[in-house]
Please model this.
Amino acid sequence: MSVIHLVILSPSSQFFEGDVDMVTVPTKLGPIGILPEHYPIISLLVIGTMHIQTGSVIKYFAISGGIISVQQDRTLILAEAIERPEDIDVARARAAKARAEALIASKDPNIDLVRAQAALQRAMNRIRVHDEHL
Model:
């Protein structure tokens, strides 16, 4: 059985490298699953849950966007930010969620609403991944 050679890079490190059976990533059009011998693609990733499967083991991650490139010899993910459920500081994520909600609710015209909404989405995703997959 063939496998996918997966490399995940974040701005701070090489997060993961190894052979996996399947990768599922969030895109604007919904999650896509990558299996061995998948056709080559490049796609933007959005805030959401990503998982990799090796045998019967599934590992979940909170990802905050990025790019996936699927080629014949490897799949490369350049993640804006990625965390394992056990590495998520849920208290910090809840505080970030509360700050973003307060900014959005303030209706202050000086607030960058798009940025506040993105911060809210990232915080909610981190909390969800932590709570569902820890």
Remarks:
- The two ends are 30 Å apart (CA to CA).
